[in-house]
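Thread: Newbie trying to understand structure tokens

Hi all, I'm a second-year student working on a class project, and my supervisor (Dr. K.) asked me to get a predicted structure for one chain before our next meeting. I've only ever worked with sequences, so writing a 3D structure as a token string is new to me. If someone could post the tokens and maybe explain what I'm looking at, I'd be very grateful. Here's the chain:
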Amino acid sequence: MSQIEEIYKLYKECNQKICTDTRSSDIKNSIFFGIKGDNFDGNLYAEQALEMGAKYAITESNNFKSNPRLIYVKKTIKTLQLLAKLHREKFNIPIISITGSNGKTTTKEILNHLLSTKFSTCFTKGNYNNHIGVPLTVLSLNKKHEIGIIELGANHLGEIDLLCHIAQPNNGIITNIGKAHLEGFGSYNNIIKAKSELYNYIIKNNGNLFVDQQNTTLLNLTGKYKHQHFYHAKIKSNSKSTKDDILYFECNPFLKINWGNNNIQTKIIGNYNAKNIAAAIKIAKYFSIEDLEISNVLKDFRLKNNRSEFIKTEKNEIILDAYNANPTSTSIAINNFMIIKSKYPLLQHTIILGDMLELGENALKLHQEIIDLLINLKIKNCYLVGPIFKKTNYPNYFNHSISVNECCNIMSQHPIQNSLILIKGSRKLKLEKLTELL
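---
Reply by user tm_fold:
Sure, no problem. This is what the structure looks like when written as tokens:
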């Protein structure tokens, strides 16, 4: 019996309970994995994990006393990945993997709500979409689950291929390909190569692809593959269509959608989310979710966790989209804001932008392009946050702050009232703090 098979027996003995943090309430009776991160080394806490109730601990360190409940491996992360791969192979269920530069989490959340009306789903929680998060999601699969929805994130070539060999999806979707994580990928062409690793895996294993029919980049990657299913979203017209792969929409500011004979007023803001909805509907229909169930879910579904949230305060109305930002998603959010603001003629209009991170050597150029877009759109009320935007050539009527705290001080002295506000920026800036003042 190999070491992975032995560890798998221990994992089953622990009722599939895995812990990677000694501070977690889930540590009791778990199998602890000592993971080495950027700011900590979980291997150093293996013995402490046992003292706190873990049944076993997997560690790279050999600095501990001999203990039969301590299992030494060369690489704990690799061991976690191999364990997840072995576990995945025990299940003969549909696994849907979702990747893309923008919209993958939103698509995953909508799809999970749709599929869970009929199936017991296992799905990626939060942003557990990397080389550690995907194995943990796979290892949460149990006998009750009938379908899996696993989000795949990446910031370098080869990562999605690795995650595919762990999750082994038989259904896949790339929401889009944009300029994100350029620092890790090096170029836009490398981003295309990286995202296409999902397509390559699905095609090689004869699975299903769900493809945006309006995206020429994606269409070129799929070619004439026979198991692909198309969807697309169009701005609402007077024409009627009974095709369930075409979604018509209008933004008022919440999306109102029509496909076939179904008309739904959603609580989802942003025309860029129309494609995410269209993708989720297409996949749900493939898995035989009824129109009525789809309609009921979409009428009540709300985005949260700083993703296109619509917040109405006593002073302002806010579109909070501060979970992440890249040049593609930021320009889309700004253009969408220009559409929405026409619905609020009695309010002022304010845009608050934070630095877009992980863009590498082109960061300043890409930030300047956003500034140029704002100028061309004649945006007057704008607050910029972060050291990269500081280096751009922005108009003197824009406000700039190095940090969120500095921006809070400015807004405390000059309150914003009676305004429709867009907040967009990378996660590390924590722009959501600004909502407390708005």
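A couple of things are worth pointing out once you decode it. The chain has a mean pLDDT of 91. The two ends are 61 Å apart (CA to CA). Feel free to ask follow-ups in this thread.
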